[in-house]
Amino acid sequence: MDMSFMTIFDVIIGILGAYLLFIGIKGYKKGEVDPMLVTSDELLKCKDIKAMSKELMPKTAIFGGFCILFGIQGLLNDTGKLVVSKAVNAGFLIAFVVIYVLFSYFLHQAKKKYIQ
């Protein structure tokens, strides 16, 4: 297997996605927000951690699921196991950027709403 930069990048995206999916589900169930998303200092200023968790952690899990999907697609494409057209690759890249921007927007909104 060729361990090119893009292959390593795809693996990292997939692992990040798995972690985000895990903390999204765990945080939602426990009513917590992971310090990876919101710093410990910000959490101390949070007026309602459970409400912030309920709003933010499902979105985190969804973003994590998409990261897993993008990592798998990129890895399969880079290793030649699944060859797709440049248009499909461009579509995945655009979708990833759009989903990342949406997640960042939701994270910013939640911080603005719950952290003072």
List the helices and strands and how they pair.
Elements: H1 5-30, H2 40-45, H3 49-79, H4 86-114
Q: How is this structure best described in words?
A:
The chain has 116 residues and is an all-alpha fold. It has one domain. Helices cover 79% and strands 0% of the residues. The protein has four helices and no strands. The longest helix has 31 residues, at 49-79. The model has no long low-confidence stretch (mean pLDDT 92).
Globular, elongated, flat, extended or rod-shaped: what is the shape?
A: elongated
Q: How helical, in percent, are the residues?
A: over 70%
Give the overall pLDDT as a whole number.
Answer: 92
Termini separation comes to: 49 Å
**Total count of helical runs of at least 4 residues:** 4
Count of all domains: 1
Number of strands: 0
Uncertain residue segments: none
Radius of gyration computed on alpha carbons:
16 Å
Major sheet: none
> Can you write the helix and strand succession as a string?
HHHH
Q: Structural class given helices, strands, pairing? A: mainly alpha
* Beta-strand percent range: under 5%
